[in-house]
Amino acid sequence: MSSIIFKKNIIIINKIKKLQINNLDYSDYKNYLKISKQTKKLIINYFLEMLNNKIIPIEVCGINLIYPNSPIFSSTSFGYLLESFILSNGFDINEIMEISGKSTNQSPYDAKFSFKNLDLFINFKTEKEGSVNNGVLAFKQLIKLYLENTKPKLYLILKFHYKIIMNEGIQITNVTGYFIEQFITNNIKTDKRSWSNNAVKKNNICYNGRLQKTDCNKNVCDFQTIYKILENLKIKF
Known about the structure:
By secondary structure, this protein is of the alpha+beta class. Strands 1-9-8-6-5-4 form a 6-stranded mixed beta sheet. Strand 8 and strand 9 form a beta hairpin. The relative contact order is 0.16.
């Protein structure tokens, strides 16, 4: 799909290991806040270095699919193609990380870093220049993920902004990121998009709908507070 060569994934893995994540107590908010800032900065900078302003050709059997009025632009698969390329080239499986390997409607994340006292989830999103994509994941998936255990968690949405260079490919113009933990304590909003025909609605929330990003706070909220909020919103599915 592209001739872009990524540095060995071990580079980012070693940098994350150097943060000494396993040695910290995340019931202490200062540690939770510190790691949220450090991991986000590290991961965003890694992808910026690899991808920023690079042009990614989209080809099949050597034929460029980026041309005027190409049918690929009207397909939702376009975003998935780009996300799949980024995921397959950016990370690899090792002792502290796993790739979901499941479809969007079956997994609440794309990649996961597992540490002794913390789980870091990453959700890859793409956003075309001039558009806005605030959808994150199905709200009921978030609840199940968070309440599956009491282990502290961080959920990073990593967004790749791009523009189309006609007859050439896709140019990544920026990489940004934010944590669900920066806005989930605000007014919870979902859209009506659903992976299920049996949408569940309660508390003015569509549980099958996608959680929508709202205004982010500067810092993440403490995990205990977020856990309690989601526990109070838990329903039987």
